[in-house]
Amino acid sequence: MRVALKVALGILCLTALASAQTAEELVAKNIQAHGGLEKIKAVNTIRMTGKIYVAGFYAGIEVEKKRGNLLRQGVTLQGMTQVQAYDAATGWQIQPFGGRKDPELMGEDDTRDLVEESDIDGPLVDYQAKGNKVEYLGHDTVDGDDVYELKVTLKNADIIYYYLDPDTYLEIKREKQQFIRGSVHESDELLGSYKQVAGVYYPYSIEVGAKNDPSQHVVITVENIEVNVPINDAQFKMPVPKK
Question: What pTM was estimated for this model as a whole?
Answer without folding.
Answer: 0.86
